[in-house]
Prior knowledge:
single chain, about 220 residues, alpha+beta, three-stranded antiparallel sheet, about 25% helix, disordered C terminus
Amino acid sequence: MSFSLWPQELVKIPKHGTIQYHPSLLPKYRGPSAINWAIALVEEKTGLTIFRPSDGLDEGEVILQKEVSIGPNDTLGRIYFDHFFPIGIKALMEAADLVVAGKHQELVQDESNANYEGWFDANAAQIHWASHISQGYNIIRACNPAPGAWTKFGEQKVQIYDCHKHVAATFGAVKGKPGEITQITLDSFFVTCHGGQIEVLKAKGACRQSVWCRVG
Length: 216
């Protein structure tokens, strides 16, 4: 795993040393949930880094980096499976070939640009409907498919995955109060946030109630 600490006596066993993969443009987003945080914090790009594992957490010398764009509606799953997975395999092979051929560079990370983010845990994944619609929407897509953004429907925990964002043009155009389900269709239901509504297309654990009910 990219966030593991490797004993140096272990990483020096191979003839050409050891290389490691991390799903961010180090030194940004060191830690175990780099892609989640990049999406939730509305980065327009991220990337992957192949580096030398050191005693520090994701702090070793950089050998190779590849950029990945983050679209305004991209989810964790889309970024990982459509970009990080295929690009990451090629990047590891490319870095390994460079190291074996002695054609690589090892660049020390710029600590002035470094930041560490911990696990994107249940607290980070909770949806707060009283927040602005963009914040809730970004949390949902950052957690889709894992760990799954969540809210409460009464006493029941509901995880929300696929959704659309509907931004209101005026204050008067916002229907209902934050956390209120104002419409249920055959394929979705609408939850009010500040600034608009989130249309939920895929949820887990939802119970069937009246159209005028509240989550959160």
